[in-house]
Amino acid sequence: MAAKNNSSAARKARIEEMRRAERSRERRNRILTIGASVLIVGGLVVGGTVLIQSQTDDSGSNSASDSKAAGKWKTGSDGVKTWSTKLSQNHVTKSVDYPMEPPVGGDHNPAWQNCNGDVYDKAIKNENAVHSLEHGAVWVTYNSKASDADVKALAEKVKKTPYTLMSPVDDQKDPITLSAWGAQRTITSATDPNLDKFFEKYVQGKQTPEPGAACTNGVS
């Protein structure tokens, strides 16, 4: 019992630390935004940068097939599947044809989906959600086979957990799926103990390409 209480306390401390870090990033972003608005004379430079980035994005979008690079799932003894090849991280502005549903990585939109415990009752774009995974978020998805009780309970869990998001994905095979960058597993219900295990390991986990990156001020 003592070990369980220590684990729970450690998790709460970790979540609180992530919340403090997120609030700090938001304050820095506000300061940077105010400063940037004063530098109007830099508009031409910014415009040139945007033009170059746009050209790069358009070029990158043509390589969306890179996300189809040869790869397959490897299933571990814990039931978690990991993608066998390195996933690309290019920013693109067009749709990406991912080799798995829901996707767990690959080229993605420059804007991330808000993932600070955000729950969406309608489908979101894969390209934005993948960017959230790059930032260390866990994406909880479900289809019409999931019970209303499970969807409600999962939503409550997500709302309490920074660096998570939730949305319906009608085309996924199983009723409830958990996805992180390069990793995925299914769970049987909202009370499945593998839910907490996945959150503990993959929310801002070692697999995160950009740990600490924002999960707010994105697409909502």
UniProtKB/TrEMBL annotation:
Residues 1-10 have a biased composition (Low complexity). The chain crosses the membrane at residues 31-52. It comes from the Bacteria. Residues 13-25 have a biased composition (Basic and acidic residues). Residues 54-66 have a biased composition (Polar residues). Keywords: Membrane, Transmembrane, Transmembrane helix. Pfam families: DUF3105. InterPro entries: DUF3105. Coiled coil: none annotated. The keyword Transmembrane helix applies. Residues 1-26, 54-82 are annotated as: Disordered. The keyword Cell inner membrane does not apply. This is Membrane protein. It comes from Streptomyces capitiformicae.
